[in-house]
C-alpha cells in the first residue's frame, strides 16, 4: 500500500509540472492570438487600398507565421492534456483498487471488533496473559489496533474524496481537449484562407517586378545612409579617444551601457503596439526570385498616427533626414546605439536626454500604400549590428 501511495505522489508531482508547462503554453498562446488579432486589424486597414503591395504581403506572411505558431501551441497543449488524461485515468484506476482493498480490510476489522466489542472481553484478553510482559504487549496491541482502525477510516474517506476530485478533473480535461481539437480545425481553415490570399498577392506583385526592383534600390540607398551615420558616430567616439589620452566613457555612460546589456530580451518595444514584418539579417525577397535583401534591423508595422519611443534611457546623438526616406534618430546608451528611421516628424534634438518609452517622433504613413505605417528599428553595439528582436521583450 505504501508503494502505491508513493507512486501516486510521483504522478501528482509529474502532473503539477505539466500544469506549470500548460500555464506557460496557454500564456504564449494568448499572446500569439493577440498578435494575430492585431495583424488582422492592420490587414483590414491595408485592404482599403485594393492594390497588392510588399507591405500587405509581409503582413500576410507574418499572419501565416503566427497562425502556424498558434496551431503548434494548440498541438502542444493537446499533447500535454493527453499526458494528463492518461496519468489521471491511471491514478483513478489505482485509487479505486486501493479503496476496494481498504474496504475489504476494514470489513475484516469490523468483524473482529464485533467479536471483541465489550470491555469485559478486552479485560479477559489482558488477564489471560501468562505474565506481566505479555499483558503489556497485549495492551499496546489493543491501543495500536484501535489507532489503526481510526487511520483506516480516515484513509478511506480521503481516498474517496480524492477519487471524486480526480474523476471530475478527468472529465474537464477531456472537455478541454475536445474544444482544442475544434479550435485547431478552425485555425487550419483560417490558415488555408490566408495562404490563398498570399498566393494571390505574390501572383499580382510578380507582374510589377520592375517597380519592385526600383523600390528595393531606393531602400538600399536609405540603408547605406543610415549605416554611414552610425559609422560616423562610432568614428567620432574613436577620434575623441585618440585626442584625449586615457579617454573613456563617463561613469554614467558606463552604467547606462551595463544596464542596457543587462536588459537584453526585456527592453520595451519602440512602438506601443506592432507586428514584426521584416526580420533582421539576409533573407530572400518575398517576390523577386534569386534576390537577397539585407536588413540591419527589423521592420515593425503599426497603426496610422503611431509614435516611435525610446527603448531605454540615453542621449540623442543624431537627428537627420534621409533623401526619400524621411527622418531618423540615433540614441546612444553608453556603448550601445538604438536607431529609429522612417519618421515623419521628430520631437527631440541632438544632445537631449531621453527616458525609456519617451516619444521621440511620429512614424510616416504611406498614403499610396493604404496608410502603411512602418518603423525601421536597429540596435548596434559600437560598429557591431545586433538583432533587435533578441533585445525587445516578447
Any descriptors?
single chain, 394 residues, alpha+beta, Helix Hairpins, Glucose Permease (Domain IIA), eleven-stranded antiparallel beta sheet, two-stranded antiparallel ribbon, 60% helix, elongated
- The amount of beta strand, in percent, is 15-25%
Task: Output the CATH class name of the largest domain.
Answer: Mainly Alpha
Large-scale geometry: elongated
Distance separating the two termini: 48 Å
Radius of gyration: 35 Å
Order of helices and strands: HHHHHHEEEEEEEEEEEEE
Low-confidence stretches: none
CATH fold node name of the largest domain = Helix Hairpins
Structure description:
- By secondary structure, the protein is α+β, with helices and mostly antiparallel strands.
- It folds into two domains: 2-205, Helix Hairpins (Orthogonal Bundle), CATH 1.10.287; 209-390, Glucose Permease (Domain IIA).
- The protein contains six helices and 13 strands.
- It has helices spanning 2-46, 54-115, 119-127, 132-205, 209-243, 251-262; strands at 275-278, 281-284, 292-295, 298-302, 307-309, 314-322, 326-333, 336-346, 353-354, 359-363, 365-366, 372-381, 384-386.
- The strands form two sheets. Strands 1, 4, 5, 6, 7, 8, 9, 10, 11, 12 and 13 form an eleven-stranded antiparallel sheet that branches.
- Helix 1 packs antiparallel against helix 2 and helix 2 (54-115) packs antiparallel against helix 4 (132-205).
- The protein is elongated, with a radius of gyration of 35 Å.
- The mean pLDDT is 79.
Amino acid at each position: 500500500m505504501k508503494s502505491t501511495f508513493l507512486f501516486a505522489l510521483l504522478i501528482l508531482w509529474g502532473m503539477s509540472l505539466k500544469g506549470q508547462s500548460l500555464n506557460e503554453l496557454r500564456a504564449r498562446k494568448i499572446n500569439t492570438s493577440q498578435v494575430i488579432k492585431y495583424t488582422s486589424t492592420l490587414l483590414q486597414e491595408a485592404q482599403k487600398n485594393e492594390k497588392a503591395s510588399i507591405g500587405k504581403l509581409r503582413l500576410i506572411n507574418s499572419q501565416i507565421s503566427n497562425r502556424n505558431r498558434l496551431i503548434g501551441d494548440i498541438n502542444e497543449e493537446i499533447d500535454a492534456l493527453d499526458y494528463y488524461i492518461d496519468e489521471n485515468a491511471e491514478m483513478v484506476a489505482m485509487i479505486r483498487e486501493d479503496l476496494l482493498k481498504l474496504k475489504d480490510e476494514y470489513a475484516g476489522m469490523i468483524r473482529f471488533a464485533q467479536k471483541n466489542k465489550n470491555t469485559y472481553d478486552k479485560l479477559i484478553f489482558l488477564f489471560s496473559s501468562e505474565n506481566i510482559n505479555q499483558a503489556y504487549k497485549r495492551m499496546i496491541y489493543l491501543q495500536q489496533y484501535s489507532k489503526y482502525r481510526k487511520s483506516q477510516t480516515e484513509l478511506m474517506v480521503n481516498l474517496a474524496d480524492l477519487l471524486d476530485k480526480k474523476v471530475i478533473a478527468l472529465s474537464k480535461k477531456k472537455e478541454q481537449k475536445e474544444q482544442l481539437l475544434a479550435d485547431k480545425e478552425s485555425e487550419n481553415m483560417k490558415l488555408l484562407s490566408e495562404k490563398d490570399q498570399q498566393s494571390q498577392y505574390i501572383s499580382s506583385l510578380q507582374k510589377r517586378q520592375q517597380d519592385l526592383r526600383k523600390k528595393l534600390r531606393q531602400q538600399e540607398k536609405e540603408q547605406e545612409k543610415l549605416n554611414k551615420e552610425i559609422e560616423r558616430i562610432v568614428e567620432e567616439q574613436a577620434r575623441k579617444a585618440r585626442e584625449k589620452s586615457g579617454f573613456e566613457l563617463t561613469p554614467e555612460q558606463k552604467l547606462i551601457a551595463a544596464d542596457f546589456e543587462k536588459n537584453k530580451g526585456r527592453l520595451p518595444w519602440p512602438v506601443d503596439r506592432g507586428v514584426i514584418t521584416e526580420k533582421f539579417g539576409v533573407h530572400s525577397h518575398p517576390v523577386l526570385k534569386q534576390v537577397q535583401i539585407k536588413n540591419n534591423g527589423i521592420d515593425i508595422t503599426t497603426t496610422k498616427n503611431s509614435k516611435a519611443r525610446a527603448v531605454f534611457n540615453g542621449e540623442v546623438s543624431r537627428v537627420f533626414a534621409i533623401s526619400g526616406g524621411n527622418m531618423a534618430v540615433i540614441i546612444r546608451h553608453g556603448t550601445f546605439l538604438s536607431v529609429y528611421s522612417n519618421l515623419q516628424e521628430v520631437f527631440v534634438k541632438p544632445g537631449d536626454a531621453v527616458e525609456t518609452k519617451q516619444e521621440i517622433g511620429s512614424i510616416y504613413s504611406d498614403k499610396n500604400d493604404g496608410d502603411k505605417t512602418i518603423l525601421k528599428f536597429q540596435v548596434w553595439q559600437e560598429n557591431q549590428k545586433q538583432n533587435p528582436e533578441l533585445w525587445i521583450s516578447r
